[in-house]
Amino acid sequence: MSLPQVGKYKLIAELGRGGMADVLLAVTEGTAAVDFTKLVVIKKIREEFADDLDFVTMLMDEARIAARLNHPNVVQTNEVGQSGNDFFLAMEFLDGQTFGRVVQRAKNTLPRAMHLSILSEVLSGVHYAHELKDYDGTPLSIVHRDVTPHNIFVTYDGQVKVMDFGIAKAAGRATKTRAGVVKGKVGYMAPEQVLGSTDEIDRRVDVFAVGVMLYEACTGGRMWRGVTDTDVLRRLARHDVPRSPRAIVDSVPEALDRICHKALAPRPEDRYATAAALQADLDDYITDHEKRPPIRRVGAFVSELFADRRTAASAVIETQLATLTSAKKSQMSVVTITPDAAGDVPQSSSSAVSLTFTPSLPRSIPPDDIPTNVGETTGAVTQTNTTPSAPQHAAEERPAPRNRRMALLAAIGAAAMIVAVVGGRNALRAAAAPPTVNVTLRATPDEARFSIDDGPAVTNPYVAELPRDEKMHRIRTFAPGYDDKDQQLPFASDVSLRVSLAKHPAR
Fold this sequence. Notes:
- The chain is an alpha+beta fold.
- The protein has 3 domains: about 130 residues, Phosphorylase Kinase, domain 1 (2-Layer Sandwich), CATH 3.30.200; about 240 residues, Orthogonal Bundle (Transferase(Phosphotransferase), domain 1); about 70 residues, Immunoglobulin-like.
- Helices cover about 25% and strands about 20% of the residues.
- It has 11 helices and 18 strands.
- Strands 1, 2, 3, 4, 5, 6 and 11 form a 7-stranded mixed β-sheet that branches. It has a 3-stranded antiparallel β-sheet with strand order 7-8-9.
- α3 packs antiparallel against α5, α3 packs antiparallel against α8 and α7 runs antiparallel to α8.
- The longest helix is centred in the first third of the chain and has 20 residues.
């Protein structure tokens, strides 16, 4: 089976499935079908949403913003395009890990100076996005709204990148946030995201989010540790924000505590006005009180921390690409990557889709009347306040020795940037397979229905998670006035089926 393509890109691995997008590893392809030049990451609308104008518009909004961003601390988008029914973004391949995963695996070994240095780089990328203007000089007024550890990427050579502008607020977006819809992750939200209208949200919500990460760098734990999402929202609405890490860890220097206190000011007018202003104070603190690590040391730390994954991933990527250039390429297929059992994969979707919480918070409702349905999402995956605990910082800049199992399946990064590949189906099955498969069934005409193994009729389209049993299953498609169609498919991997029924011959 030859490999599928999106535009000029040949797909070699499925990296993640989000609320509305698939993220895939691909290679650029030139003439002769083997002249690939580099690895890229493709983010495209999932098949069942390809005909949904709202989802396509949302991806195009993200693409419009991402295509304009060109900064060392922002993930680069190389191309935005359409191939058949596929709308996609082609982004740079990054070899590294999300900051959320780095924090989780490092535990108590991530030096504070390194942690602060990474946040300084984040602020540089965020400020660049805030300041960006359109070609005619009009400010784009970009606000990320989801600056969190899972949307920051650290490469094995020490680069720091902000990624996923999928829910960014910007001038000229075709899609608008509805009243009562709160976008972002609860644990990093600013008070005005909870109570304010979309028009009142500006760049200072991103400053607050970095302030939360700064607080966690100082205390070695979650800022809202032990507080439910509902109570977090209530406290934000009352401007009841933990602002002083020194109150938790008395060894935090006063100068750093003051910076954190200002970054987390509940009222935007009391906060740092720009990310650059916060970065300037943070850089002065690092210069005066810490020893800033060079970029190569940051890369070495992350490389050593994930040595098992990096070694295994490099081997399988080389194998996959070598196979692609050989006569065996016809035997290759897109494979699905599953996390290993180590439990240090970020909780967020690898496709880095926007997470939309809907607590319905009109300004007239008192804080204690906030509804409790904050775990619901729209067009996304359910995730509420699940970022791993930040580390306690150690004096040494090297992680403690680990005796980790070498994983055959290795993930590289997350969000849209998690990258790992295996060389074939046997390698995939050797690892622990997920217990379910995603089944997507679509048919024309619209009134068509499906049955699985002669069970009850189900709707069209049909999207569900079903048990992975490696067995063949009968899928029957039927509609009044049309010929039925039967197909046998194994539930060994994700199933995506499109059926077009033929009308009965006229009598």
